[in-house]
Every structure is written in structure tokens, then in C-alpha cells.
Amino acid sequence: MDDDLEEKVIKQVYTSHIKFISRFAFNIFDKFPKKSSLHCLSKVLLRPEVFLAATVVIFLLCVYYQTEINASNLLKRIYWQSRSSVNTRQLKAEKDSWEKRLTQSAVYAIQGRRNHMEDRFFIEESINSSTNLAIFMVADGHGGDHAADYAKDVLIKNLCNKILETHNLSQNKENKLDIKDCDKSEEKKEEKLPVKIEKSNEVESDIIDKINTKGFSALKQPNEPQMPPPKEQEAKCYIKKDKIDYGRLIADEILLADYKLVEMSRKKMIIAGSTALIAVIDSTRLIVANVGDSRGVMCDHLGHSVPLSFDHRPQAAREHKRIQEAGGFIAFKGVWRVSGILATSRSLGDYPLKPKLVIANPDILEFELSTHRPQFLILASDGLWDTFSNEEAVAFIKSRLHEPHFGAKSLTLESYARGSVDNITVIVVVFKNGKFEFATSK
After folding, report:
1. Mean pLDDT score of the chain, rounded to an integer?
2. Rounded distance, CA 442 to CA 440, Å?
């Protein structure tokens, strides 16, 4: 009864207030002619039910407005928190980083989510102040940094010296070269180092069993066959019709460096290995040599991505066939691996899997810069390519060439933000009007 009485009182108070407001409003609108549209409209608007509906609408609008403000503030908080999270990740990545910038090239490398930094790089826009020669390298080490350091410190040094010697000799037109001895030594070399490795299970099966069951640590007294030592060629052997045969020159230097590295590693029981991606620019020639799964890509004058190298993966048909013919196998353990261990089928070092299962023979491609007229090159370790395709990397750098590192730093940090768990090294080489301006002395 009390509730009913209370409701009646509230209703009566509300009705009386509405009537009072209506009379007050009618007194205002009575000034309009009775037949006017405003007079008719006022009668409709000042009805109690219309007033109530208007009150409800106004209340809902206020609630909606307040909700919008809260939602907007919430979205802003989420946005800035995400930005803060990204910035925190970037700061963490930049903590263990290495960088270098020259006139037309830059490199940025981070340790990333790995416990150790095993990537190495080398950039030189002018091997010699009087020559139009530039060289760039990315080495992605595994099992330690010994092999990557060797590639950076020894391989590159020897390669630069051989290129300079050959280049200077080719410029000396008065010097008549006798290449007969070179041809003979080349024939002997091909006999000793056949491109196609013959199948042999004499010792390899025992090594593979050890690797498969106990890993590299079991190989304390390896008995694998010795690699035949490659013969060092004279500089004159790489000149044909006053033109340097960079394919042979670079391949010979890589194989020679690998032989010495493997012999040293065997004596010291160092199981480390490394990829090697090397780019040499000689005037309008671009030569790219690749061993392993680091990768290079070119952005040509049309903005298209042009592969500079192809990954050496165990599951690739050519590599799989070669490994099988050598008496080995590949197994899937997260990724395809040689003997279930190594994720790349070619490398420097890795002596327990040499000389048959894993080889150091490089794939070498040559490009004429005047034809492609490139905008830039990207050379990077597989830490980048785990999160970027060739086309994505080219598109990313294309819009960031104005940055201090020509986009190399941004690309590296973006790869880290996308979740790359490996070391990441990115080199960007920039061309002007399709030409590379060498850093020669003035």
C-alpha cells in the first residue's frame, strides 16, 4: 500500500509540474495567431508525453557523448601503450647494436633475441683510392663466431688483395700475359675439385651416425677424409681479354679460405660455421657471390625487386640431390637440416660435415649496372628474411632512403618488431641515377 501511495504522489507532482510549465509556455505562444503554424506546433510540443520523450532523448544524448569521450580516451591509452611497448622493444634491440655509414652505403646490425652476436659485416666503397672498386659482405655465423670472424678478417682481406693485384695487372697493357700455365693448373684443379661430388660411404656413414646420435660434441677424434688443398692461382690467371673473371677469382678465394678455416677448426676442435654473401662493384659490373642462406636483392630503376642470390637450403632439389649423392640425408627438426643438424647446405667451416655433405662452393651472379640502373641493393642475414620477403624489403627501403642509414636501421628494427629471433644485419647500398659513385680520393 505504501508503495502505491508513493507512486501516486510522484505521478501527481510530475503532472502538476508539467501542467504549470505548459501553462507558462502557452502564455508565451498565445501571442501567435491561433491559426498560425507556430501556434499549432506549440500545442504538440508542450504535451506531457512529448516533453517526457524529449527529456529521455536529451538524457540519452548526454550518456552517448560521455561514452564517446571515455571510448576515445581508452583508444588513445591503448595506442600510446602500444607505441610505448614498441619503443621499449626498439630500445632493447638498439642496446646491442652495431652500425656504420659511408657516403652511399650503410649497415645496421643487432644481436636481437639471441644470447650472442654471431653476424659480421664489411663495407668499403673504395678498396683503393685510385680504383673504381667497392666490396660489401654479410657473414652469418653459427656454432660460435669463429668462422664469421675468419670471413671478415681473413677472407675479405685476401679477396681485396687479389682483386687489387688482378685489377692493376689488367690495367698494365704493356705487360704481355702468358696464361698457358694458368690453363694447365686450372685443368689440374678441376680434377682435384670436381663440381659434382661422387657418392662415398667409406667414412661418412660413421660420422653421420655420431652426429645423429650425439651431435658435434661426439666428434672429438674425427676421421673424415681430408679436403684436397686448392692451389693458389696467380693474378694473371683471372684476366681474359683485359677483363677480370670475377667468378673464378672469388670462388677460388672462398674455397681457399674455407680449406684453411676447416684445417684450423679441425685442429682446435672448433665446430663453428658461417655464411658468406659478398658483393663486388667494378665500374658498371656487379658481382654477387653467395654461400649459405644470407640473401641479396636489388631494386631496379622500375622499382622491381631483382634477386641477387638464392638460399642454399637442404630441401632445395639441387642441394638435396647433391647431399644424397654424397651419402648423406636431410631431416626435419623445426626446419630441414643436413643430417638433422645444419639448416644451410653450404657454408664456411662446419668441419664435421665437410668435405662432402656441406660444401663452400659459391653461387655467383653478375649484373650489368647500366642495364638494370639500380636504385639500391639490400644485403642481409637470414634474420631479416625470416620476417620479410624480397618485395616487402624493397618496398620498405624505397620510402626510407632519406633516413640517415638509408632505411637499414628502420628495416632491422622492424624485422625485430615482427618477431625475428635471430641476429639481424642489413646493408643498404644506394645508387644515384643508376650509378655507383666510388669514394676515390680528390
Report:
1. 80
2. 6
Task: Measure CA 409 to chain center.
Answer: 11
Residue 297, Cα to own-chain centre: how many angstroms?
10
Find the angle CA(326)-CA(327)-CA(329) to the nearest 5 degrees.
105
Task: Report the C-alpha gap between 227 and 262 in whole angstroms.
Answer: 9
Ramachandran angles phi, psi of 242, nearest 5°: 65, 15
Cα 287 from chain centroid (whole Å)? 20
User: For the chain, which residues make up each domain, given as ranges?
Assistant: 2-87, 96-430
Distance, in Å, from the CA atom of 239 to the CA atom of 198, rounded to the nearest integer, reads 31
**DSSP codes joined into one string, 203-238:** SHHHHHHHHHHH-GGG-SS--PPPPPPPPPPPGGGG
Domain at 96-430, CATH class = alpha beta
* Per-residue pLDDT tens over the stretch 76-126: 666 556 555 555 656 666 778 999 999 999 999 999 999 999 999 999 998
Backbone angles phi, psi at 433, to 5 degrees: 55, 35
The cell numbers describing 40, all together, are: 499549432
Q: Coil, strand or helix: which one is 182?
A: helix
Report the SS3 class of residue 386: coil
Give the amino acid at 359: I
Return d(Cα 387, Cα 118) in angstroms, integer. Answer: 19
Between residues 391 and 58, which one has the greater pLDDT? 391
Cell 647431399, residue?
323
| Separation CA 381–CA 19 (nearest Å) | 83
* Cβ-contact 353, 277 below 8 angstroms: no
The residue whose grid cell reads 625485430 is 416
